[in-house]
Amino acid sequence: MGHKSIQYWLRCILLILASIGLLIALPVVIPLIIAVILTLLLWPLVNMTQTYARRYWKQCPRWIAIIPSFIVVALISTLLVRYVMVPVIGELTKLLINLPYVLDQFVAVVKGLQGIDGESIIPHQFEGIINTTLIKIGNYGVDLAQRGVLAIVSFASTLLQLLLVPILTFYLLKDGRTIKRAVLDIFSSPTSAHLEEVVNDILRTLGGYLRGQLLLASNMFCLTFIVCYVYDLPYPLVLAVLAGIAEWIPIIGPFISAAPAIILAAVISGPLAVKVAITYGVLQVLDGQIIMPKIMGHVINLPPLVIITAIFVGGYFFGMIGMMTAVPLTAIAQIIAKRLWYFNRYYVLQKEEHHG
């Protein structure tokens, strides 16, 4: 019993040291993080492929079921780079060059708005505030766009490092269950059984959230691109990509994606800006009330107040990344808190079943 106890604590210490090592080397483990995300996205597809293959080949190894998923990812990545990423960089470069002119034109349009009596609807006292705000928005937009371009360049420069991603993803898809079991076996029963339920809940929630949000973002990208094409708005791919990214930010995401489109439309004409605003509003109603509930279901079961608080806290401390990851991290915290809250009762029930 004593030898087993020492072995148990040594395993716990090794697990803690490994976790600390990953946190310290976080910039180096970016390929691992991407691989985990890809694994969560592809896991159901690999399982489905393996189940189908074993109808005809009972001993079909899992690595064969992984190959079709990799082929699909490679094809989608090639198409995205060729038809989305390269054109978006071109449009974004043009937008950065023309952004000061666009904002000047928008300011002129706002100042030119007149009421029924022919006077400007914008009080003179607010003109300075509007100018200052638009200048800040313009500077922030330029900074954000430049960071995006630099991120793409940095992504290309670290391509060699990211070649590890498919290798890591392959082995996580192939041996993920074995790795999970090896970690959980550090703990004795019923603790290991309880932790397995917690881990399974977290993986199920994360996987469902990632797949659902990816589908929602793709849907919003396509719809926004169609709207921009129909209304002949400039920079349609940039606006569509922005809408897809903003889809990952609940509640305030629609405002982030709609504002640039309305500004660009207002520079062209006032009626067009109204049409674009109404269309974006309709799209967001359809997305929030019909499409999202059907796709996401009960994956994220958080009250709106908790979601809003999590988004603003995440944004305050970690910026855009914090806003995008606030909801899934809060959902994980909810799972852990709920499971830990009932852990003592669970432990007693397991103990009673064991002795019974």
List keywords for this structure.
single chain, 356 residues, mainly alpha, 12 helices, 85% helix
Please give a quick description of this structure:
The protein is mostly helical and about 350 residues long. The protein contains twelve helices and no strands.
Describe this structure in words.
With 356 residues, the protein is mainly alpha-helical. The protein is elongated. Helices cover 85% and strands 0% of the residues. The longest helix has 50 residues, at 62-111.
Task: Categorize the overall geometry.
Answer: elongated
The SSE order reads: HHHHHHHHHHHH
Spans where pLDDT lies below 50 across 5 or more residues: none
How much of the residues is beta strand, in percent?
A: under 5%
Largest sheet: none
**What structural category arises from helix and sheet content?**
mainly alpha
Q: Give a count of the beta strands, DSSP E runs of length 2 or more.
A: 0
* Distance between the first and last residues' Cα: 23 Å
Helix content: over 70%
Mean pLDDT: 79
User: Helix count?
Assistant: 12
- The whole-angstrom Rg is 25 Å
Assembly state (oligomeric): single chain
